[in-house]
Specification:
single chain; 209 residues; mainly alpha; 9 helices
């Protein structure tokens, strides 16, 4: 590109004039970088604001460097104390939760919930529901208590008289079944056979004598 420009300049009848004119114009870097002053500000005010802006930007850079150095120092202290990133996370979460609790939004929400709770607990519907549930609980407890008492009494009676019921039932069955058994044909046939055997034994014994 530079050689092409040189060829053009060499062939031009006005060669050297453009370059000389450009070198003669003074260049103000500050003026070139500076835009026109905002409406309502004088040049002096603009210069003052730009100077203040430069100072603030310089302070921000310094603070960033200080913060980075502090973070490195903090990391070294944590490493020496044996603190892990998880411990740091827990601390950050705890601090964040504390900040939430003390925030105005959280406090207002807690107060609003407390007001709603008071309104609900003081309403007639809530009181009637509580009374109904309480009565149902009392009735259920009484019924369970009665059942438990009845079971306990029954077990006590069984421990005090373990054989009375079985003995009485056996006596009743025995008294009912014996007369009927004696009057049956089977029982009479059995008695006749036993009598015959006894007679035979006695007869054989007398003949041997």
């Amino acid at each position: 590109m530079e050689s092409a420009n040189q060829d053009i300049n060499l062939n031009s009848p006005n060669k050297g004039l453009l370059s000389d004119a450009m070198t003669d114009v003074p260049v103000d870097s500050a003026a070139a970088a500076r835009t026109s002053a905002p409406e309502g500000l004088t040049l002096a005010e603009e210069e003052e604001l730009r100077s203040e802006l430069a100072k603030v930007e310089e302070e921000i850079g310094t603070l960033r460097q200080v913060l980075a150095a502090k973070e490195r120092h903090c990391g070294e202290l944590k490493r020496k104390l044996g603190l892990t990133p998880l411990d740091g996370l827990k601390q950050n979460l705890s601090k964040s939760w504390h900040d939430v609790q003390v925030s105005n939004a959280y406090v207002k929400t807690s107060e609003k919930l407390g007001e709603w709770n008071d309104k609900v607990t003081q309403s007639d519907f809530y009181k009637k529901t509580q009374e109904t549930l309480s009565q149902a609980g009392q009735k259920t407890s009484a019924a369970l208590s009665n059942v438990g008492s009845a079971i306990s009494r029954k077990l006590g009676d069984m421990r005090a008289h373990p054989f009375s019921h079985s003995f009485s039932s056996y006596s009743i069955r025995h008294s009912i079944s014996m007369p009927a058994m004696r009057n049956s044909a089977t029982f009479k046939s059995f008695e006749d056979r036993v009598g015959t055997i006894k007679t035979s034994i006695r007869a054989n014994g007398l003949s041997d004598m």
